[in-house]
From TrEMBL:
GO terms for cellular component: cytoplasm; nuclear envelope. Belongs to the WD repeat rae1 family. Keywords: Cell cycle, Cell division, Cytoplasm, Mitosis, Nucleus, Repeat, Transport, WD repeat. Pfam families: WD40. This is Mitotic checkpoint protein and poly(A)+ RNA export protein. SMART domains: WD40 (SM00320). The keyword Transport applies. WD repeats lie at residues 92-133.
Length: 375
């Protein structure tokens, strides 16, 4: 069971030989069809409220850990046994408001937690202690660790229309950048950062040397942004991004497209059946790119996850629908495990929230599913 500050400290977790490259085996556990129709591995002791973010530990950790932030003000951490799919609850930390984002430091020893309480805290896993490292004037939407040759910091974005860069040893930000509107979705893959704000603004930032604005783009999507994820080219250089909206559509956008036709949009998370000329359309809640194959996953308010090959412009797989929305997702560092969170995303308002429906986090063995199709 989870505990507070007295929970298991990470410094005492034994090395059980993870990071060996062994994939998850096929899941054979019995579950009721409506709560786990895809027969994926279920994480023990999920959060009590809507789940906002997931993040796997970096490849520097010998074991595989998964953290999740929730609207119950808590960040939980589990150890994942790669060969069996079994999860073990390790520890939990609390903040004074709902958690909107989490990220790991590159050496896997600490976790940043961004909250609606307008602060970011740093969770030291060895000591199981936290300390405040960032502050905004409104809820903080994202936190990302930036490791550059000449500096390292945590980059935070907020609904106060600012992005801030923090040296964790100082109470004052290294740099503050104003944004045109409230920050709604952010991704960072050094040396690139992409920020989508209210009013459908897209700003690309260059993080080399001193972070600065590189370009503002006109959004290819007509509705509010919900998710963004940076992708790399065949030389492993960040080169563009996927942008998802509440209208069940994703845009693939290159920063410097050689051919304008390389940029395109596609429909997703929509019902197949059209009733009286109408189609059910669902929000794209999260997007993640596979760390090995470069293909991508989208999750939506329809309770499904889908895998896509953007280069071939084809769908690779769509899951069975869960009982609730899928709010966020993550790949582990070697791309063997796909984690996704099932909880209410409030897209239909409070009247459709059902406390009887259980929140859950599931693990899907995904390496083969996301391989590009042979051309």
């Amino acid at each position: 069971m989870f505990g507070g500050g007295g929970a298991t400290a990470f410094g005492n977790v034994p090395n059980t030989g993870f990071g060996t490259g062994m994939p998850l085996s096929t899941n054979t556990m019995n579950s009721t069809p409506n709560t786990n129709p895809n027969k994926d591995f279920e994480v023990v002791n999920p959060p009590d409220d809507s789940i906002s973010c997931l993040a796997f530990s970096p490849p520097t950790t010998p074991n595989v850990f998964l953290v999740a932030g929730s609207w119950d003000n808590n960040v939980r951490c589990w150890e994942v046994e790669r060969t069996t799919g079994k999860t073990v609850a390790k520890s939990m930390q609390s903040m004074q408001g709902p958690i909107l984002d989490v990220c790991w430091i590159d050496d896997g020893t600490k976790i940043f937690m961004a909250s609606c309480d307008k602060t970011v805290k740093l969770w030291d896993l060895a000591s199981n202690q936290t300390m405040q490292v960032a502050q905004h004037d409104a809820p903080i939407k994202s936190c990302h660790w930036v490791k550059a040759p000449n500096y390292s910091c945590v980059m935070t974005s907020s609904w106060d229309k600012t992005i801030k860069f923090w040296d964790t040893r100082s109470p004052d930000p290294m740099l503050v950048i104003q944004t045109p509107e409230r920050c709604y979705c952010v991704d960072v893959d050094y040396p690139m950062a992409v920020v989508g704000t209210a009013s459908r603004n897209i700003i690309i930032y260059q993080l080399e040397n001193t972070p600065r604005e590189y370009r503002q783009l006109e959004s290819p999507l007509k509705f509010q942004h919900r998710a963004v994820a940076i992708f790399r080219d065949k030389k492993n250089t960040p080169t563009g991004f996927a942008l998802g909206s509440v209208e069940g559509r994703v845009a693939i956008q290159y920063v410097n497209a050689i051919n304008p036709k390389d940029n395109f949009t596609f429909k997703c998370h929509r019902s197949n059946v059209v009733n009286n000329g109408y189609q059910d359309i669902f929000a794209v809640n999260d997007i993640k790119f596979h760390p090995v194959h470069g293909t991508l996953a989208t999750v939506g308010s329809d309770g499904r996850y889908s895998f896509w090959d953007k280069d071939a412009r084809t769908k690779l797989k769509t899951s069975e629908a869960m009982e609730q929305s899928i709010t966020c997702c993550a790949f582990n560092s070697d791309g063997q495990i796909f984690a996704y969170a099932v909880s209410y995303d409030w897209s239909k308002g409070s009247e459709f929230n059902s406390p009887q429906k259980k929140n859950g986090i599931f693990l899907h063995p995904c390496f083969e599913d996301l391989k590009p199709k042979n051309k």
